[in-house]
Amino acid sequence: MDELFTVEIYHQGHFLENPVRYVEGFVNHVDDCDPEKWSKLEVEDIVERLGYPKYKLLWYRIPGLGLDEGL
Fold first, then answer.
1. What is the 3-state secondary structure (H, E, C) of 36-52?
2. Residues 2-58 pLDDT 10s
3. What's the superkingdom here (predicted)?
4. For every residue of 5-65, which 3-state class applies, written as one string?
5. Contact 35/2 with Cβ under 8 angstroms?
6. Global pTM?
């Protein structure tokens, strides 16, 4: 079995440039995510539970990379 992981969700803030960063807003942590079950549907469920039943865009960062390279 793969190790479970935690996802950080940043929301209600905004991006700034030079350097790229996300400011203001909130951060939520979702623990015990299972890589065997991780999918777009899991992400959509988390986003809806945070109070966003309708959304247009989701951004994600590749683990281990900064916003400039991994967004």
1. CCCCHHHHHHHHHHCCC
2. 799 999 999 999 999 988 999 999 999 999 999 999 999 999 999 999 999 888 888
3. Eukaryota
4. EEEEEEECCEEECCCCEEECCEEEEEEEECCCCCCHHHHHHHHHHCCCCCCCCCCCCCCCC
5. yes
6. 0.80
The tokens for 9 are: 């969700």
CA–CA dist 32, 42 (Å, integer): 12
Could you give the dihedral angle defined by the CA atoms of residues 43, 49, 53 and 59, in that order, rounded to the nearest 10 degrees? -40
Alpha-carbon gap, residue 38 to 21, rounded angstroms: 26
